[in-house]
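USER: Please consider what follows.
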Amino acid sequence: MPKRPNIVIIMADQLAPQFCGAYGHPIAKTPHMDALAARGLRFDAAYCNSPLCAPSRFAFMSGQLISRIAAYDNASEFRATVPTFAHYLQALGYRTCLSGKMHFVGPDQKHGFQDRVTTDIYPSDFAWTPDWEAHDERIDKWYHNMQTVKESGVAVATFQTDYDDEVGFAARRWLIDRGRDKAHGSDAPFAMVASFIHPHDPYVAKPEWWDLYSEDDIDLPEFTLAASEQDPFSRRLMDGIEASYVPLSNEEVRRARHAYLANVSYFDSKVGEMVQTLNDIGELDNTIVIVTADHGDMLGERGLWYKMNFFENSARVPLIIAGPDVVPGIASNACSLVDILPTLIDIAGGDETVLGEPVDGRSLMPLARGEADPKDEAIGEYCAEMTPYPVFMIRRGALKYIHCDADPPQLYDLVADPQERVNVASDPTYAAEAKAFATEVHARWDSRQLREDIISTQKSRRALHAAMESGAGEAWDYNPPSDASQQYVRNHMDWTVAAARYRFPPLKEGEPE
C-alpha cells in the first residue's frame, strides 16, 4: 500500500475569506495562507452549512447537515452516536488529535479523537439554548451586541490570545512527538485539527499585529443599509445585536475592522508555525494541509455584524488545500464544510464502505487533483437565534436562494451582483429559477415539522440546564489529562533514556552528544 499522507487542518473562527490576502484583500497581510494557496488549491465558493459556531463545526465533523443530526444552535448536543471524520480516520489507522476549539456540547468531549490536548474555550452545556417561542427577545447574558464593536482596539493579552497561544503550543508539541515516534520506528500517519478562536470578536488585537496596519488604510464597509431598508430577517438580526438602535461612528467601525485584520494576521502566524513544525519534523512534503473556518463575519457590510445569516461575508469560508498530489489552482465550484469528511476519507484511502451513516458531502480531492467535478452546490441551514422558523440556503452555480417561512424569499445572482445588492426573487427574468428553487426547498425540508422538533429540544435542554445549575450531574467541560509523574525526568526513569527520547532529531550513532 502506498504511503498515506498525514493530514493537518488549521481552522479559524469567524474568518471571512474576503479579509485574506490569499483571496485578494488589498492590504491583508497573510503570507502563510498566501504561500499555501500558491502551492495548493484555493476554493472560491466554499460555504459553512450553518453560520454559527457549534452547528457549523458539527456539520464539519460529521459530514451531515445540521437538520439530520439535530445540531441546531450553540447549545445543541453533538450526540456521541454520530460518526465523525476522527472516528473514520482512527479506524483507517491514523493517530488523531484535536488541539483547540470545537465547541462540543454534551458529555462526549472527544468524538473520535484519540488525543485532545487542550480544553475548549466555550461552555459545553445547555446554557446557550435559544427560545423560539420568544424568538424576538434579546438574550443579554451571552449574546452579541454593539458594545463589542465599540470596545475594539489593542491589548497586550485577552482570553482569546491566551487560548490561541496555548492551542498553538500544544499542537506543535504534539506534532513534534509524532516526529519522535517516527524517529523511533512508528510509521502510522497522523491527522490533527488545530482550531483557533481568532479572528472572532471581541475585536481586540495584540500591539504587534495592530501595528502591521495603518489606520488610514482601513476601509469602511462598501455597502450598508439602514434598518428600515433591510429584509425582515436582517432586521431581526439588527435588533438582536442592537445594531438597530445603537449607532456606531465611522471611527468605531474602522477600529473594529482594523483589529479584525490584525487578528487575521495573528491567525496567519499560527498557520506559519504549524507549517514550520511540519517542516521541522520532516513531514511537510507528506502532509495535506487544509486551512478553513467555521463561518465568516459581516464586519459592518449591509449594516450587519458577526454571522447568523447567509450573505457572502457571513456564510462563505476560506478553504485552501495544499500537499502531495494537489494541483495548484483555483476552484470555482460551490462546496461546503460537509465535503471535508468524504475528502479526508478519500485522502486516507477509504471509501463509502467505511461510513456508519449517510453523509451529505462529496470528496473534493478530484478537484484538488485537477479533475473535473460536475457538482457546484452548497446547502445551508440556520436554526438558532432571532428567527421563528428555519432559514435555508441553496447555492448552485451563480445563484443563491434563501428561504424562511416567515419572510419573503431572496434570490441573488452572485456573478452579476457579487455584493447581493438586488434581490431578484420577484424579477421576471429569474421567474423560472425562483420557482424551481421554491419547489426544491419544499421538497427538501418540512419546515413546520423541523420547527416543532427544534422547539421541543429547546424546552428539554432548558429544563436539563436548570437541573444542572442546581447541582445535577457533573460539568462536561473538558480537562486534558496530565500526569506530572510521567513527564520530563522522574526518579523511576533513566534520565539518559529520557533525554534521548525527547531529543529531536535524535543523535545518529557515532555523533558526539
Notes: The two ends are 37 Å apart (CA to CA). The longest helix spans residues 250-280. The chain has 15 helices and 16 strands. The first strand starts at residue 6 and ends at 13.
